[in-house]
Amino acid sequence: MLKLVLLLLLSLQLSAKDTSREILTNSVRMRAAPRWLTSTRINKVADRVQSTLEWTIRRAEVLWYSDEDLFIAAHGLSNTLVAFSQKTANTIHLGPKITEKNFDQIFAHELVHIVAYQKYKQAIPGWLEEGLANHVGKVGKVDYQWLKNQPALEHASELAHPLVGSEFQIHYRYVASQALAEMLHKKCDFKNLLRLSVGRKMEDYISTYCGIKDLDAAFRSWIKEKGV
What is the distance between the alpha carbons of residues 87 and 60, in angstroms, rounded to a whole number? Predict the structure, then answer.
């Protein structure tokens, strides 16, 4: 019943907007898009993600929320969230905090999640997916000095549930996961690692292809080195 109410409210919200602003591209169908957004800009972001991950996106639905309460009710997670994807439903949900300035990075991040499911299914480990999405989406730079001053992770698997815990813990997991993605990009051919992971588990190739026998120790050393 709650989902039905939310869908009804979202439908009313969308109908109240300029419905002529639907944008249809090969990668997404975006209803009630803001006036500053164009198909050219969407394609530029999507093309970069598709090129990096070597995948043609099966068209995803993109929903915009102008009401923060509706957006929070839709995801039921941290109120710091600005966007989220429902991978199995092939949908991206964009909250009201997304602006003309931050759209490209956030949209690219969410598209990576869509591709991760469409192409790789469960091959990309949960502890890496947010970092991969940040890395490909070019969502800011990792503050390695800050990261170095935080308690060291025992295991990379601790990054597998990024939206659990306090605001600080969530922020830490996102930053650490992006740092881990950057380490893998630097230490081995990331594109080949992704190619090898299609239909398989990436963890197997981190050891054999990348030559990283102890991922946790390598990651701690990476943070120490980069945080100087």
Answer: 9
Q: Where does the pLDDT of residue 140 fall: very low under 50, low under 70, confident under 90, or very high at 90 and above?
A: confident
SS3 32: coil
> How buried is residue 28: exposed, middle or buried, by Cβ count under 10 Å (0-12/13-18/19+)?
buried
Mark whether 94 and 33 lie in a shared domain: yes
In a shared domain, residues 77 and 166: no
Contact 61, 91 (CB under 8 A): yes
If asked whether residues 98 and 137 sit together in one domain, one would say: no
* pTM flag (> 0.85): yes
CA pair distance 108, 158, nearest whole angstrom: 24
Domain match, 102 and 168 both = no
- Which carries the bigger pLDDT value, residue 169 or residue 58? 58
